[in-house]
Amino acid sequence: MPGENITALGPPPQSCCVSPAPSGARRRPGQQCAMPLFGNSFSPKKTPPRKWASLSNLHLLDRSTREVELGLEYGTPTMNLAGQSLKFENGHWVSESGGFLGDRRELQRLRKRNQQLEEENNLLRLKVDILLDMLSETTAESHLMEKELEELKQHSRRKK
After folding, report:
1. pLDDT-based confidence at 63, cuts 50/70/90?
2. Predicted TM-score (pTM) of this structure
3. Contacts by 61-70 with C-beta closer than 8 Å and gap 24+?
């Protein structure tokens, strides 16, 4: 029926809708509209809560069976770095291949080398600071000499 409104799927009637009539006539305030121009026509229904938190029966198993079934036993983390195998134990990375004596000697050697490099770095920083002070002093003296030279030139020009 051409003059009939279809509102079964649409929102409640509004007065700002365009008429679906073929003649293009404006809708009267009491008439229902087919589609809103602005408005929320989608309102999802709430889903009912689930009856069970999990439908799996694995939560009924004891811990050791769950670890085997789900693969929760990871073991200790290990990695290979620069040809050396390391494992994580008690919060520290420990070498698997070398043993503790070799690691301690290597650690002492690295600490000694690190201390030497820190001392050398401090010495080089001190030298750079001294050179910068010398440069500042020389620059200041140069500026003073240039100023004196300009004053002497101006004084000699006045005498002529």
Report:
1. confident
2. 0.36
3. none
